[in-house]
Amino acid sequence: MATSTPTSADIPAARPLARKRARPGDQIFHAAVFSALLIALAALVWLLISVVAKGATALDWDFLSSQTSSRASRAGFLNALKGSVVLMIITIAVAVPLGFAAATYLEKFAPLSRDELRVITRRRRRALELRRAAGELTGPRLLASRLGIALSAVWARIGPPLNTFVEINLSNLAAVPSIIYGLLGLALFVQIMGISKSLLAGGLTLAILVLPIIIIASREAIRAVPRSIEQGAMALGASRWQAVRSHVLPAALPGMLTGTILAMSRAIGETAPLVVVGGVAFGTAVPSINPLNAANEDLFAMPLQIYTWVDQPQEDTWGPLAAAGIIVLLVTLVVMNLLAIWLRNRFTRRW
Amino acid sequence: MADSRLTSPPILHRPTEGRPEPRMELPELNIQADAGLPPTADEVVVFQATGVNVHYGKFLALKDVDLAIHRNEITALIGPSGCGKSTFLRCLNRMNDLIPGAEVGGTITFHGEDMYAPDVDPVDLRRRIGMVFQKPNPFPKSIRENLSFGMKVNGIRVDDDRIEQVLRHAALWDEVKDKLDQDAYALSGGQQQRLCIARAIAVNPEVILMDEPCSALDPISTLAIEDLMRTLREEYTIVIVTHNMQQAARVSDRTAFFTVQQLDGGDRHGILAEYNATERVFRAPEDPRTQDYITGRFG
Question: Which of A131, A239, A246 sits opposite B123 (nearest CB)?
Answer without folding.
Answer: A239
